[in-house]
Amino acid sequence: MKNLFCISLFIIMTDITAQPVFDDYFTTGALRIDYIHAGDKNNEYFFFEQLKKEPFWGGPKKNLIDRFNYGKYKIVVHDFQTDSIIYSHGYSTLFEEWTTTEEAKNLQRSFYETQLVPFPKNKIRIEIYGRDKKNLFHKKYELVVEPANYFISNENTAKYEVYDLHISGNPENKTDIVLIPDGYTINEMEKFKEDAQNLNNYFFETSPFYENKDKFNIRLVLAPSQESGADIPADTVWKNTIINSSFYTFDNERYLMTYNIKALRDVASNVPYDIIYIIVNTDKYGGGAIYNYYAVTFSSGIENKYVFCHEFGHAYAGLADEYYTSYVSYQDFYDLSVEPWEPNLTTLVDFDKKWKNMLEKRIPVPTPEDKKYMDKIGVFEGGGYVPFRPFALSPIPPFPVSHKIFCKLNFFWYKRVLIIKIGEIIIMTSKFLAPPIRETKPFNFVKYIPVFFKRNCSAKYWMISDPWNWIIL
Q1: Same domain as 118, residue 97
Q2: % of the chain at pLDDT higher than 70
Q3: Is the pLDDT of residue 17 over 70?
Q4: Could you tell me which of 22, 287, 368, 393 has the fewest CB atoms within 10 Å of its CB?
């Protein structure tokens, strides 16, 4: 194991040193590429909308080429003259999720999407790739950009007051989170600050953020809405809000998302950021997240802080859900003949590339729900949006049965290496992932246990950790 660790560390360091030098290719600010992503279940199309120069680049300046290979899509930037890759990142989209719904079989729709890259010094070629069902990438779109092009808009978007909630240092050396209010009127900005502070406090009481508090910046953009609340279509509730967040996304009541990406990016552009997080002014349970795109949670209620951390796991780390205990709109979300790109799911097709080397020798695969395996790294039935049964004591949607029991269910399932933008390496070992329980008030989660759990449900996916497991330890 020690040799394996050293080899992994060497590979990671090699990746870091092989990265392009930011100042050789990029200048201040960001280039925003706006486009329409349209299609149906079997077809997709990209249509150019606009290019825009934004004042801040909050992304990496040292690790410019993505090594994780997560996400349904990836954007790749080539230096036009040399054709060398000078920037890339993976991401997912709401369009991708929609294509797996029943509606996508009979209807074509369009989604406004945007991507940010560092603003180039010289001519570049941008490529967008998408995965097929076998997880192979194919080029979907290509655009050549000349940075001197006078059609690149630099118009000022609306300027809003910025509130520094938690600042640890220069954005280029930190992971920057921007919290965007939706459904807060101008008279409710103090409430937004209070709601954000409560989420911030809990966020830094949990691992691995507790141990890495100095690696994050969190800023608020105080952008008011005309009306308070959020859209609830099934109740014929429609609110005029700045981001236009809505429940019943894809006709799923708890799925609280927005289609208005253009407005979201415009508001977020007031600060440098890596992650956009929308806080919706409602006590109705809901939320959602898309990898490297944005996350959403409701503002108040005893569950919202847990949802906040859970959704952050999706948006920031690319971790998949591991439950299928309540309604979702997705169909055939994974191809069972290949490994999912998400690091915490496996179909056992190529388990060597997941966490197989971390299993103890006598752990059976699949791993039964026997009590003796509950504190072990294993391969337990359930995970992803296919029928499955969870652990006997699994963290369940929305929350674990109890915090004490939950802590026993953290399987320390992989030594995750988190490469911060500055190139700093954090080795997340099982020891590192075992902080003391810092909850000050006990909470009874038993009432949230769905009554329809069945021990004999069939499953075709295996899992070891939910985003909850990775974050709330």
Answers
A1: yes
A2: 74
A3: no
A4: 368
Can you give the CATH number for the domain in which 224 is found?
3.40.390.10
Which residues, other chains included, contact 27 with Cβ-Cβ below 8 Å and sequence gap of 6+? 118, 119, 120, 121
Query: What does pTM read for this prediction?
Result: 0.83
Average pLDDT, the chain: 78
Question: Of residues 308 and 410, which shows the higher confidence score?
Answer: 308
Number of separate domains in the chain:
3
Write the pLDDT tens digit of every residue in 93-127.
999 999 999 999 999 999 999 999 999 999 999 99
Nearest CA to 74 out of 136, 15, 134 is that of 136
Question: Which of 88, 121, 145 represents a domain boundary (last residue)?
Answer: 145
What domain range is 225 assigned to? 161-317
Output the pLDDT for position 375: 66
* Residue 455 pLDDT > 80: no
